[in-house]
Amino acid sequence: MAGRYFDEWTVGDRIAHEIRRTVTETDNLLFTTLSHNPQPLHLDADYAAGTEFGRIVVNGTFTFALTIGLSVGDTTLGTLVANLGYDKVTMPKPVFIGDTLRVETEVTELRRSNSRPDAGIVTFRHLTLNQRDEIVCQCLRTAMLKVKPS
Predict the structure, then answer these.
(1) Radius of gyration, alpha carbons of the chain
(2) pLDDT above 90: residue 150
(3) What value does the mean pLDDT of the chain take?
(4) Residue 2: its pLDDT value, please?
(5) What's the pLDDT band for 1 if we cut at 50, 70, 90?
(6) Nearest to 30 by CA among 43, 41, 21
(7) Given the DSSP bridges, would you call strands 135-146 and 119-129 parallel, antiparallel or unpaired?
(8) Nearest 5°: phi and psi at 26?
(9) CA angle 117, 126, 146 (to 5 degrees)
(10) How far is CA 110 from CA 11, 29, 117, 136, in A?
């Protein structure tokens, strides 16, 4: 199990996640069509060529999902009770097919659960960066984690 229990975290902990991912045309196409998003900016190369971006922009919800996925192994894998919410999700720069993304995480808040003595709540700030070190996605993720068994 790679994830940490609630009581193994401290505010200010930082992780530069080792797993990186180069976004492919197939990733974008499948995610966009599976989520029933008909936005031509994500699907139509001719349309996208006429926009300010000049090419297809990767679906932002894919970028967000990848952000969480790249962070799970080091944060909540095997210790998660539930993700409670996502806040302040922003996409400061577009992601393009062929961009390689990586994630950095910081713990911003910790508190014991009021209703579950075997759990605590951690707020993670995730930053996703491309190969040019530009932030392409950032968010806060609030997760309920198990307390380390005695």
Answers:
(1) 17
(2) no
(3) 97
(4) 83
(5) low
(6) 43
(7) antiparallel
(8) -65, -40
(9) 15
(10) 7, 38, 14, 26
Pairwise CA distance, residues 46 & 67, whole Å: 28
Q: How far is CA 118 from the centre of its chain?
A: 26
Contact partners, residue 88, CB within 8 Å, separation at least 6 = 138, 139, 140
SS3 22: strand
Asked if 44 and 70 touch (Cβ cutoff 8 Å), the reply is no
Q: Are 137 and 67 in contact (CB under 8 A)?
A: yes
What is the DSSP annotation of 94-140? --BTT-EEEEEEEEEEEEE-SS-TTEEEEEEEEEEE-TT--EEEEEE
Residue 48 parent element (H or E): helix 45-49
pLDDT digits (tens, 9 = 90+) for 22-65: 999 999 999 999 999 999 999 999 999 999 999 999 999 999 99
Q: How many residues does the chain have?
A: 150
